[in-house]
Specification:
Distance between the termini of chain B: 126 Å
Helix content of chain A: 55-70%
Structural class of chain B: alpha+beta
CATH topology of the largest domain in chain A: Rna Polymerase Sigma Factor, Chain: A
Number of domains of chain A: 2
Oligomer: heterodimer
CATH class of the largest domain in chain A: Mainly Alpha
CATH architecture of one domain in chain B: Sandwich
Strand content of chain A: under 5%
CATH architecture of the largest domain in chain A: Orthogonal Bundle
Distance between the termini of chain A: 10 Å
Structural class of chain A: mainly alpha
Number of helices of chain A: 9
Order of helices and strands of chain A: HHHHHHHHH
Radius of gyration of chain A: 17 Å
């Protein structure tokens, strides 16, 4: 696993981060910024904005790290949520007035699906796994997780019953879990 | 609690995808802290999303890290390093200590203190305003008090005057009462000769002591050249009973002349100093003892 390149345990890293040690910040940034940047880019689809969102995300991470509690969840998940929420907020502010993306955006997202499956060199093995995911299920995860859609919005946009969306969200994640299963 | 049911409800998936309400979020966090199997499932789902995120890895622009290192506040670890960092500044202050003592504001501290400075001014300004308003309030209160005081003083003066008048009246009444109480005192009403007004004066005559007291009720004040003169009619002849003044507040006049016998009393208006015989045409009042 990639997270194991730390010279000490995650708990120690968190403690050092909470003490605002610069060395710990270097480790955190080097370890997680590529994934966070990738997620942000997927959400905002604009390199200039993604850059700003990444900066904002790390400012928030730095500000909120003292309240992070490993008992409540994994560090990387916590970091991802901050980056993702900041990115979703950024595009909502940009399209202020229209909190929900228009249907043309949906087309973009679906198009993007086909494009993003060119694997980055460093993570060659992983995208193949993602490709094994049922495209319908993957779309649901992307809409909810990366674009901040509620289940109701997904149901409306994909013209599906709400129950189906809920089932699909659950099975999508279960499938993802199996794909990356440890 | 059926944890299997909870796990299969889909709430954990929703939690991981961030679509739960704040209340559901707390619930999931609570449940996962209690039940290890829920925690394990949550971690597995989170790990799956983490893995998915890893597939999206992109190297961020290099200037982001530089910007963050400049902007974020770091604590320099270890006491030795802190000492080293502080030392040069400490020496500078020691050198300057002889002349002036200045606070050691770094550039950062200064910018941090700006809002505080402004806030201090705001507080000072509002305090000043409050003091001004309060001073004006006190001033108007003082004016009000002064007005009340002067009106109180005025009414106090009126009351004092009234009390003085009443006291004089009281004295006169006491005097009259004392005369009346004396045994043998007779009351002779002197009525106007033209009979237009009644009871202009009263004579209290004590036949046994001969003492004559005159009470003026409503005689008009004569001119400076004239004076009222009281006469006692003894055996058909008027005998001088003395002149008297009508002064302010004096109502009972004790005459010095005494009469053991008298038929009537009369008052005439004579020239100042009195007259040996009464000018009957100028007789103002008369009162018969017998009646």
């Amino acid at each position: 696993m990639k997270r194991s390149n730390l010279p000490f345990s995650e708990d120690v890293l968190v403690k050092k981060l909470q003490q605002r040690e610069e060395q710990a910040f270097h480790l955190l940034y080097d370890q997680y910024s590529p994934a966070l940047y990738g997620v942000i880019l997927k959400v905002v689809r604009d390199e200039e904005l993604a850059r700003d969102v990444l900066q904002d995300s790390f400012v928030k991470i730095w500000r909120n790290i003292p309240s992070y509690d490993s008992q409540k969840g994994r560090l990387f998940t916590w970091l991802l949520n901050i980056a993702r929420n900041t990115a979703i907020d950024a595009i909502r502010t940009r399209h202020s007035g229209q909190s929900i993306q228009t249907s043309t955006d949906i087309v973009d997202i679906v198009d993007q699906h086909r494009q993003t499956y060119q694997p980055a060199v460093e993570t060659l093995d992983l995208p193949e796994k993602v490709n094994q995911l049922n495209p319908d299920r993957k779309l649901v995860i992307d809409l909810v997780y990366f674009y901040g859609y509620t289940h109701e919005e997904v149901a409306e946009k994909l013209n599906l019953p709400l129950g189906t969306v809920k089932t699909r969200v659950r099975s999508a994640l279960q499938e993802l879990k199996k794909l990356f299963g440890t | 609690m059926n944890t299997k049911e909870y796990i299969e409800s889909g709430i954990l998936e929703e939690y991981v995808l961030g679509t739960v309400s704040p209340q559901e979020k707390r619930e999931v966090e609570c449940m996962s802290s209690i039940y290890p199997e829920i925690r394990a499932e949550l971690d597995n789902l989170s790990a799956a999303m983490e893995q998915y995120a890893q597939t999206l890895r992109r190297e961020p622009p290099s200037d982001v890290k530089a910007w963050l290192l400049k902007e974020l506040d770091f604590d320099t670890p270890g006491t030795e390093e802190i000492d080293e960092a502080v030392q040069p500044e400490g020496q500078v202050t020691e050198d300057e200590a002889e002349t002036t003592i200045r606070p050691l504001y770094s550039k950062d501290d200064y910018t941090h203190s700006r809002p505080t400075y402004r806030f201090t001014w705001l507080v000072a300004a509002s305090l000043g305003l409050i003091v001004l308003v309060f001073a004006y309030f006190l001033y108007s209160q003082l004016q009000g008090s002064q007005q009340t005081l002067s009106s109180l003083r005025e009414s106090n003066q009126q009351l004092t005057d009234e009390v003085r008048t009443l006291r004089t009246h009281q004295q006169q009444t006491d005097q009259t009462l004392a005369i009346l109480k004396e045994p043998g005192t007779r009351v002779i009403r002197l009525n106007a000769t033209d009979t237009t007004t009644a009871n202009l004066a009263t004579v209290y005559w004590n036949a046994s002591t001969g003492q004559v007291n005159l009470e003026i009720d409503s005689l008009t004040r004569p001119s400076e050249a004239q004076q009222y003169q009281l006469w006692a009619i003894v055996d058909g002849k008027p005998v001088d009973a003395g002149v008297f003044e009508i002064g302010e507040g004096t109502r009972v006049v004790q005459q010095t002349k005494k009469f053991l016998k008298a038929d009537a009393f009369a008052i005439t208006l004579e020239r100042r100093g009195g007259s040996p015989t009464p000018t009957l045409s100028a007789m103002v009042v008369v009162g018969n003892v017998k009646t």
